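Hi P.,

Sorry for the delay on this. The queue was packed all week, but I finally got your sequence through. Input first:
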Amino acid sequence: MLDAAPAKKLVEVDNLKMHFPIQGGILRRQIGAVKAVDGVTFDIFEGETLGLVGESGCGKSTCGRAILRLYELTDGVVKIDGSNIADASTEELRRLRPAMQMVFQDPQASLNPRMTVAAIVGEPLMEHSTMSKADRLARVYELMDAVGLNRDFANRYPHEFSGGQRQRIGIARALALNPKFIVCDEPIAALDVSIQAQVVNLLEDLQEKLGLTYLFISHDLSMVRHIADRVAVMYLGKIVELAPRDALYSGPLHPYTEALLSAVPEPDPSLEAKVERIILQGDVPSPANPPKGCNFSTRCPKVMDICHEIEPEFDEVQPWRFTACHLYKETTNQTASQKAASTEAHKSAQLGEPK
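Then the structure:
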């Protein structure tokens, strides 16, 4: 898929920021901000799955919700299928909602316990379509078939289902309006291991049949390796590396990605004994008070003096491979110099000047 540039960017995220105010004092004035997402930039192409990984608290779920504007953004641009979500009015946003949906992490908490499956799955149709009651019910049955739920269960309530079945209800609800883009916010985190594979296989089958585009948020690196086309690694509100899946897993560039992948268990006991774990020292800094320079500088095993002073830019250091690390700054500068030299040479040749 990534040998040639895909035809169309479905989702474009540019410098996305989501800061939550910290209030204090008698008058409850703002005294700071939690920088949950702080300058995130990436694109998702039509029909692909972008995996978003990182440890708990790094801002993955907040990023996913901000992209769908379930929060009011602090700053940045988010375009879905060419429409700017960040600046859309309430009426425009309502019109755009059918194209973008979300599958939440906890299927029990995201389903109304007082509504039947038919009512839950049919609710988006009531809000965004003019279908008759009979047509809605027919569509609900169609969606239940698509996610592997028995039609006879349409009048049951969420508490009567297992965790995997509840997640299938959530997926059916997300599919009701034929969306183009779905944010899957750790959809398998609350499920048993035996059920996780079933849900992931279901998501893959639906993507193939319906041409869906996913942002798959997870901390399960093994599952992301299975489902994602490209992977973005997040640390303390920023993306530190973005690369095609196989390239990232076989040769990570950023020190944090190296440490993250070294923590993945090896199924073969003979190989597990030979794996060298990278143990990071210290705790993750507070997003309310991130360190100066690189966010990872306080824990990085390859830290340099410049890392404590200057924030590294998120640049393409190899074809299709982006990272924010001073270790690759020289490579990036060389590439830029080569491009500039090539451009000057081309201009000189056109003007008939000596190179």
